[in-house]
Amino acid sequence: MANQYPGTPPEQPPGQPGPNPYATPPGGPYAEGAYGYPAAPVYGYPQPQPAFGAPLLTLGDIAVNGDTIVSPAGSMPLRGAVWTATDMSRTEERIPPHAIVLAILFFLLCFVGLLFLLMKERVTTGFVQVGVNSGGRHHSTMIPVQSRDQVVYVLNQVSYAQSISV
Fold it and tell me: Rounded to whole angstroms, how far apart are CA atoms 111 and 36?
């Protein structure tokens, strides 16, 4: 195997024209962008910049930026996107533990403590599944919710996404 780093470059014979392979390229060492360095800026015309900004809407790992939907499945066009939302949460109504303790403590006072058993609390657990289909791609995400207000908020966000994708 030949030596990969031969040391100093060989001298060019005087009768043989040709560029030195070890010479610095014209325009500077980083003119064309090499080894992690960006290409040298071209002066005269402004370079187009990608449109980065705050997203209009974010649902889990789905974001809407301008006219594009960005998801882990890839970028999709916003126009003509089909949005779906499925409420997979459940709400339970139960007697809270502190009401049971107060009912036992105040049971001795003429059964007044039994009124504490009328106390109820609502607990919502579960997910709202949001899906988007556009440009031949599909992505769905599960958004955890802990209250009915969060469920309504996510469903309103999906409704807004449907209205801007027409």
Answer: 79
